[in-house]
Amino acid sequence: MDISPQTAQAKLEGHFSHLRLPTRCEFAPVGLLLYTMRLPTRCVSLHLLGCSSIPCDYLPGVSLHLLGSFSIPCDYLPGVSLHLLGSSSIPFDYLPGVSLHLLGSSSIPCDYIPGVSLHLLGSSTIPCDYLPGVSLHLLGSSSIPCDYLPGVSLHLLGSSSIPCDYIPGVSLHLLGSSSIPCDYIPGVSLHLLGSSTIPCDYIPGVSLHLLGSSSIPCDYIPGVSLHLLGSSTIPCDYIPGVSLHLLGSSTIPCDYLPGVSLHLLGSSSIPCDYLPGVSLHLLGSSSIPCDYIPGVSLHLLGSSSIPCDYLPGVSLHLLGSSSIPCDYKPGVSLHLLGSSSIPCDYIPGVSLHLLGSSSIPCDYIPGVSLHLLGCSSIPCDYLPGVSLHLLGSSTIPCDYLPGVSLHLLGSSSIPCDNLPGVSLHLLGSSSIPCDYLPGVSLHLLGSSSIPCDYLPGVSLHLLGSSSIPCDYIPGVSLHLLGSSSIPCDYIPGVSLHLLGSSSIPCDYIPGVSLHLLGSSTIPCDYLPGVSLHLLGSFSIPCDYLPGVSLHLLGSSSIPCDYIPGVSLHLLGSSSIPCDYIPGVSLHLLGSSSIPCDYIPGVSLHLLGCSSIPCDYLPGVSLHLLGSSTIPCDYLPGVSLHLLCSSSIPCDYLPGV
User: Domain of life of the organism in this record (predicted)?
Assistant: First the structure.
């Protein structure tokens, strides 16, 4: 029988006092012991013991606890929190957005787990080496065999450690007495809690979060994002490109902060009057004494206010009852949320974001970026250079939109027949009735379709099962994702992006930029002027590649010995069997190496631990980044570029 949430709550309290039924959840039928009631599947924590089973195939937001030898039959679990205890196992290989908690001897057979949050407790281990977008939590004696962790979020608790020295794009969370042995960590997000320390003096692009009594000994930290909480301090006087987050009673002693992003929360304050290029976020009762703030991004939340009338290049975000007394705001980005309003009629170069019931009284807004959400409306008929985003049931009455960027989502529609210079984004079942779209950027998602046969200068993005019926598309940028295909044989000047199992039947593609990802292949032998990007285990059957730009990533290889004028980019363990490569631009990243001793006119870029066995390098341009070294003493006519900690042992360098 179907019962109300109140009755279900009463029965649960009477028979199963340890269970609670949330009152504001979406309900779906689930059997519970002797009762057949409508329980919530989104706010439920499911514990399976014994021979329990669940008939659900789709469990968004569910917390699943598997104990013993239990299993679940479902293959797709977005937003599910999985707790595996004992010898529990899961049979699926693809887990987007899943939070995995492994305890004891639990194991996972997954090789590709993007966006997964992995929690390893005890002696749990994972067999995979490449974890893009994974959040790793290491507790106790857990270990990982990975040396390359791009985009991984590492949480080290207790005495956990990592053996790697180069971890680009990793988010490191150090708690307790954890430490890291690396000195160069570009693009790393460091979170220091307690007495954690870092031995680094130069950390470009690092996001530093200091909590408690943490401190850093460095004076120059360009591109660092500093988060100060509690009594944390910094001894820095010059911090260009730093993102400062001040919470509580934190203060900074500096007066000049170019390119700094300031976040003021609570009673934080700053003593400075001139803040070029600063991003100011005011929350609560924070205040600023500044009268002139060019290039500042102001975020006003709550009852915050600013006393100034002239704000060139300012990005204003108004939330709640915030107000501004300004009448002239060139180059201002205005974000109106709720019932916010502005009294001005002329706002050139303004980016307007209207949410809810916000409205504007103006008729002429050149260079304005309009975002209409919900039931927002505009009375304007002429919108040159406007970026229009229509969401929901929004409509526009105008027929002529030169230079407009149109984004159609849902059931939005436009009555226009001529759209020169328009960027059209079609999502869902949107469609356009026009046949001629010069200079239009078309994005087709889902089942969208276009009746056009001639698309010069069009940028076509095909996702899913979208298709186009045309055979000749000069100057078109084609992006094929999934199982998309094109029937054309001649596509000059086309930029082809092949992802997944996409294929092309073309034998002659001059001036084409080919990007091959996944298992994509090309059957052609002659590719003049082509830019080839090979990722993964791909191969090409071509022996002659004049003017080709080759990008080899992973274990890709090429069988050719003579490649004049080729730009080679080697990443990972890629290798080339070539002995003579005049005019080649070689980029070596990671552990790549080249076996050749004589390379005249070559431009060598060494990154990481790459090495070269060459003693004689006339006319070579050497770029050393990171810890790269060269063993040679005599380098006539060489152009040396040393970055970071690179060094050379040479004493005699004529003409270098």
Answer: Eukaryota
pLDDT one-digit tens code per residue, 171-215:
555 555 555 555 555 555 555 555 555 555 555 555 555 555 555
- The answer to whether the beta carbons of residues 50 and 68 sit under 8 Å apart is yes
Rounded average pLDDT over 242-266: 54
| In-domain check, residue 521 | no
Any idea how long the chain is? 656
Q: Number of structural domains, the chain?
A: 1
Tokens of 393: 């049931």
Environment class of residue 127 by beta-carbon count within 10 Å: exposed (0-12), middle (13-18) or buried (19+)?
A: exposed
Q: Kindly state the DSSP code that residue 6 receives in the 8-state scheme.
A: H
Contacts of 596 (CB under 8 A, 6+ apart): 578, 579, 580, 581, 614
Cβ atoms of residues 369 and 387 within 8 Å? yes
Report the C-alpha gap between 96 and 517 in whole angstroms: 20
Say if residue 638 is exposed, middle or buried (CB neighbours under 10 Å; 0-12, 13-18, 19+): buried
- C-alpha neighbours within 13 Å on the C-beta side of residue 641: 10
Cα separation, 261 vs 241, in Å, equals 8
Q: Which domain holds residue 644?
A: 583-591+599-656
Indicate whether 654 belongs to any domain.
yes
Residue 166 within any structural domain of the chain = no
pLDDT (mean) for 382-389: 54
Tokens of 195: 């007495």
Contact 393, 376 (CB under 8 A): no
Mean pLDDT, residues 93-108 taken together: 56
Residue 21 has pLDDT above 50, yes or no: no
pLDDT attached to residue 374: 46
The CA distances from residue 371 to 16, 314, 355, 403, 406, in Å, are 50, 18, 8, 16, 10
Query: Which of 469, 465, 416, 463 has its CA nearest to residue 440?
Result: 416
- Could you read off the pLDDT of 441-473 as tens digits, one per residue? 555 544 555 555 545 555 555 544 555 555 555
Nearest to 175 by CA among 205, 154, 195, 189: 195
Q: Over the stretch 50-98, which tens digit does the pLDDT of each residue have?
A: 455 555 555 555 666 665 555 555 555 555 666 655 555 555 555 555 6
The answer to whether the beta carbons of residues 149 and 170 sit under 8 Å apart is: yes
Residue for token digits 């003693």? Answer: 615
CA dihedral 191, 194, 197, 201 (to 10 degrees): 60
Question: To the nearest 5 percent, what fractions of the chain are helix, strand and coil?
Answer: 0, 30, 70
User: Is 566 part of any domain?
Assistant: no
